[in-house]
Amino acid sequence: MNEGIQWTEDDVRFMRAALQQACRALDEGETPVGCVVVRDGAIAATGCNRTNAARNGTRHAEFVAIDQLLEQAGSDAAAARFSECDLYVSCEPCIMCAGALSLLGFRSVTYGCPNDKFGGNGSILSVHQTGCGGCGGGEQQQGQQQQQQQQEQQQAADGAAAGSSGGGGLDQQLPKGAARQPGRLYPSRGGLLAAEAVDLLQRFYAAGNPNAPAPHRPVRGRPAAPAVLADAAAMQLG
Ligand SMILES: [Zn+2]
């Protein structure tokens, strides 16, 4: 996550909309992660986790929103204008979603709380800064990439020594050599309304996670999730 970011009123408004989507997921017995996609200054698509209802572990909030954009565009990815889309999501995208956002060419990502187990925007991997690596054929260039990465790390170290520490906003400089990787690099910012996002997740796990400490408190009006779904829920973050 980035510290000291100056959030705009629009940032807060869009993240609150993402949190509303997360609340909707919670109400429906899903891991409470939600998102909105902003294009042309307005919300173009929304999504919340649907993995349990869909019996599909890939139905993360981001994928639901992406499918909505594609549907609006008649399944034409160019018409969906992903490169003009900014994602606001309550929890850091997982590695799978971070890869999809990169391959589709999203312009930016803003998230709430970090995803310490599966995060693809800095917690576990930094897909937003590296692209998708070998998943799109980039492994053939790996040796060259490692060499360039070493050069970049040296340059970054030189920059830090000179006091040019970046700052971390949407306009932060992306690593050099980015285009060589499959997918597009994108700026990612975290920590916006993180406490609200964490609160929703804690409510979900306190109520429905069979691994939660006793006493186990079932959710009123919602059947207890089968163990396999509850285990899968741990992977639905982001
Ligand atoms: Zn995901």
From TrEMBL:
<feature type="domain" description="CMP/dCMP-type deaminase">
    <location>
        <begin position="9"/>
        <end position="125"/>
    </location>
</feature>
<dbReference type="GO" id="GO:0008270">
    <property type="term" value="F:zinc ion binding"/>
</dbReference>
<feature type="compositionally biased region" description="Low complexity">
    <location>
        <begin position="141"/>
        <end position="163"/>
    </location>
</feature>
<dbReference type="Pfam" id="PF00383">
    <property type="entry name" value="dCMP_cyt_deam_1"/>
</dbReference>
<dbReference type="GO" id="GO:0002100">
    <property type="term" value="P:tRNA wobble adenosine to inosine editing"/>
</dbReference>
<feature type="region of interest" description="Disordered">
    <location>
        <begin position="135"/>
        <end position="185"/>
    </location>
</feature>
<keyword id="KW-0479">Metal-binding</keyword>
<dbReference type="InterPro" id="IPR016192">
    <property type="entry name" value="APOBEC/CMP_deaminase_Zn-bd"/>
</dbReference>
<keyword id="KW-0862">Zinc</keyword>
<dbReference type="InterPro" id="IPR002125">
    <property type="entry name" value="CMP_dCMP_dom"/>
</dbReference>
<dbReference type="InterPro" id="IPR016193">
    <property type="entry name" value="Cytidine_deaminase-like"/>
</dbReference>
<dbReference type="GO" id="GO:0052717">
    <property type="term" value="F:tRNA-specific adenosine-34 deaminase activity"/>
</dbReference>
<protein>
    <submittedName>
        <fullName>tRNA-specific adenosine deaminase 2</fullName>
    </submittedName>
</protein>
<keyword id="KW-0378">Hydrolase</keyword>
